[in-house]
Amino acid sequence: MTPQRLHIAIQKSGRLAEKSLDLIRDAGFRLQRSASDLSYSVENAPIDLWCVRDDDIPTFVADGVADFGIVGRNVLGERVAGPAAPRLAEVMPLGFGRCRLCLAAPDGFSYAGRASLRGVRIATSYPNLLRQFLNQEGIDAEIVTMRGAVEVAPRLGLAEAICDLVSTGATLEANGLEALDTIFESEAVLVRSSKVFEGTLARTAESLVTRLRGVIASQDAKYVMMNAPRTALAEIARILPGAAAPTVIPLAGRDDLVAVHAVCQESVFWETLEALKAVGASAILVLPIEKIM
Predict the structure, then answer these.
(1) Residue 176 forms part of a structural domain
(2) Within a domain: residue 197?
(3) Which of 31, 178, 226, 240 qualifies as a cystine partner to 281, CB 3.0-4.6 A?
(4) What is the pLDDT of residue 154?
(5) What pLDDT, on a 0 to 100 scale, did the predictor assign at position 2?
(6) pLDDT mean over 207-225
């Protein structure tokens, strides 16, 4: 009997492709690329990666062809907001591929809030998400569906405004457009099918999710060590960003000072160190964390 393998659908090219591969490698999985460049096999686990169009990932996962997928929440949201929502579940955000679905219009468009969109023709590649937003806001506007180059629609007279993904805003600026409002926040997410895994597949799926959570948790996390007065412990716990209860260790020969160790799940800025120093902390060390389990 052929051993069962877990299948993960990822974007074959574009913003999320390389980041998805990096994430899986960082989770300790050794990848072997196929000759066709359309798939990867994992050498140290029963896992295969399939490289497909991003629009197809929700379908692959919902139909159970792939067990997991890495896809932009914008793509997932567009499918979920449509008339035939796929049956799949979002497992966790992955912390990369962040962007916004924004309403934008040429400079000089009179915008005094969302009510200004009434009666306006809006071009977009995300008609389901845009329609959902307009319905929620009670706005009657016309949606012009396009499959690409949405930003040229106002210039060609196809629409007065657009609704498109924005990352840096450079594309809008290059086309004389100004962002008016954000209707959806997006980033890469891990999704899984609704089928029940058993045996080897269940253990592999659990290991995959646990490892990916560990990688994501460690990205901004820092290990902070310092010496501090016992009397300042409560204040130090308040200052440390995103930290659970710190570990407190007695210092040899000192009853008034202790060593404090803490894992901070958020970025530790210079302002944080200055605040710690101000309450009496000294010898402060901030170290990166490679893995968290």
Answers:
(1) yes
(2) yes
(3) 226
(4) 94
(5) 54
(6) 91
Query: Are 263 and 291 a contacting pair, CB within 8 Å?
Result: no
Residues 6+ apart with CB under 8 A from 142: 119, 120, 121, 122
∠ CA(13), CA(14), CA(15), 5° rounding? Answer: 140
Range list of H helices, 40-181: 57-62, 73-80, 127-137, 153-156, 170-174
Dist CA 63 CA 45 (whole Å): 23
**Mean pLDDT value of segment 24-45:** 92
Domain hosting residue 129, numbered range: 99-186
Is residue 24 located within the same domain as residue 90?
yes
pLDDT at 36: 79
For residues 103 and 78, state if they share a domain.
no
pLDDT attached to residue 268: 84
Domain count, the chain: 3
pLDDT at 1: 47
pTM: 0.83
> How does DSSP assign 130-158, residue by residue?
HHHHHHHHT---EEEE-SS-GGGHHHHTS
Q: Are strands 121-124 and 161-166 parallel, antiparallel or unpaired?
A: parallel
Give the pLDDT mean for 27-56.
92
Q: Which amino acid is at 38?
A: L
Q: Are residues 109 and 150 in the same domain?
A: yes
Q: State whether 182 and 284 are in the same domain.
A: no
Same domain, 230 and 259: yes
**CATH number, domain containing residue 181:** 3.40.190.10
Answer whether residue 1 is part of any domain.
no
